[in-house]
Amino acid sequence: MKRAFALVGLRASGKSTVGRALAELLHVPFVDLDEELVRASKFPSIGELFITLGEPAFREIETRVLEDTLANDESIVIATGGGVVERERNRVLLAEHAFVVWLDVPVPELQRRLRADPVERPSLTGPDAVSEVPEIARRREPLYAALAALRVAADSGTPTEIAAGISFRLAGQGLTP
Description:
By secondary structure, this protein is of the alpha/beta class. 53% of the residues lie in helices and 13% in strands.
């Protein structure tokens, strides 16, 4: 039976890094939805794609890529984009086709990580990606909470340790591939 494990959470919560480590532990392929979006769009980066097309067009492409990814016949770990939960269609897709894990990180830690990130991320709502985190968290965290089958504190420990904790909890529920 196919089993998709989808990681959701705000920017800089560790979805891609933890996702790669989790896929390795589960011995399944890893898919970074943002990387797939870039590949599907032919833009050089996710930021360029978002800024050039705007959020509505970006979210349309994101939904198509999510549908294609979840249609895959093998077990996979998916790192979603932070805003994937903004569209109801995406929430329905994830709820129907994946075991959703929310990587929960407090706002101050997310802001610290974004300041330290050498890759500048585009602002979604205001002057910069760091200052908008509290507003985006208020909007998205209830969506993550409603969707996630598993909520994981991802603000301490290495990505490998966090992935191992997720793997252990999945195995305890009989959910590993």
